[in-house]
Amino acid sequence: MKAVRLTEWGREPALAELERPIPRGAEVLVRVEAAGLCQSDVHVIDAAEGALPYRPPFTLGHEVAGHVAALGPDAEGTAAGERVVVYGPWGCGNCTRCAAGRDNYCDRRGDLGWHGAGLGRDGGMTDYLLVPSARHLVPIGDLPATQAAPLSDAGLTSYHALSGVRHALGEGSVALVIGVGGLGHLAVQLVRATTPSRVLAVDIREEAVDLALRSGAHLGVPMGADTAKVLRAETGGVGVDAVLDFVGNEATFALAVDLLRPGGELAVVGSGGGRLTVRKPGFLPAGFRLSLPFWGTRPELAEVIALARAGSLHVETEQFALSAAPEAFGRLRQGRVRGRAVLLPG
Ligand code: FEH
Ligand code: ZN
Ligand code: ZN
């Protein structure tokens, strides 16, 4: 089978020919129908040796959907042919967090040498993916795999970030989404689908602002000198109740702090490397709360899939053949992917 492999640090991933794996014990073999690309894949590819706890070679791809091809002798909870999306954070499987389907916050994540599919373990940019347990599979029914795959990371990460600030998004509230790419355009839809909040959106790219409006934002504003003024005016001068920042750099932190109401919430999802000074007395709004959410939980993935199957979520995708992975990564690096890039194996 073909696979997009990270063979060594500092080297671009390459297509390789591998033997199809055989599921043992509780493992499940998934025939991959779609695998999404993520900015984190680029961070992994660009990582210096020793920066991440992973040991190449391994196959990339942590946003995966397809159908069950084979089961190990101890596998339970699924059946051959079932259409599934793969819950990508794979923890130790034994701590209380993993037992609750919160592998994203596994107590042993620092000792494992991996974070999940395509993140130190063989992932889904290939024809077949070996999943450690059926507990990592969520049924998708007739949802297209090209929709389901991005929902397992872009959708789930946005949903989990929103879950932490949802209490601030009641009647009359305003949410701000900064960065409207693969995650941000789903965040706009999720805020609209699960809260009564008005949604404002900001991005440096005009086409991303358009995507925000198509996704249901009440107002889309290009990042510029008067962005804060325009957005504050939209809130009647009081500011926003929550910010979901999918960029995470100094400019977006400054915008968020400038616009947040007292008691406001900032969820930082983007790995832009920005720094925020937290000090008392200081300049943050009274009652300011910060979260740094990571990916999401398996129960939340099932909720995201249910929203998509109910028609409340649509992923904007650009599709590439698996063999065109280098082109897809090039477009992602240049910021020239509209929505989410998805690879289609064989
Ligand atoms: C995965 C691994 C490490 C950092 C960030 C990520 C995200 O892409 C998961 O949503
Ligand atoms: Zn990711
Ligand atoms: Zn664990």
Overall description:
This protein has 346 residues and is α/β, with parallel strands linked by helices. The chain has two domains: 2-153 and 296-344, Medium-chain alcohol dehydrogenases, catalytic domain (Quinone Oxidoreductase, Chain A, domain 1, Alpha-Beta Complex); 165-291, NAD(P)-binding Rossmann-like Domain (Rossmann fold). The chain has helices at residues 39-46, 96-99, 145-163, 184-194, 206-214, 227-234, 250-259, 298-309, 325-333; strands spanning 2-6, 14-17, 28-36, 58-59, 64-71, 83-86, 116-117, 120-121, 128-131, 137-139, 174-178, 198-203, 219-222, 240-245, 260-268, 289-291, 317-321, 340-344. Helix 9 (325-333) links the parallel strand 17 and strand 18 (340-344). The protein is globular and about 60 Å long. The N and C termini lie close together (9 Å). The structure holds (1R)-1-phenylethane-1,2-diol and zinc ion (2 copies). One zinc ion binds at residues 91-92, 94-95, 97-98, 106-108. It is an enzyme of class 1 (oxidoreductase).
Mean pLDDT: 97
Radius of gyration computed on alpha carbons = 20 Å
* Proportion in helices: 25-40%
CATH class of the largest domain: Alpha Beta
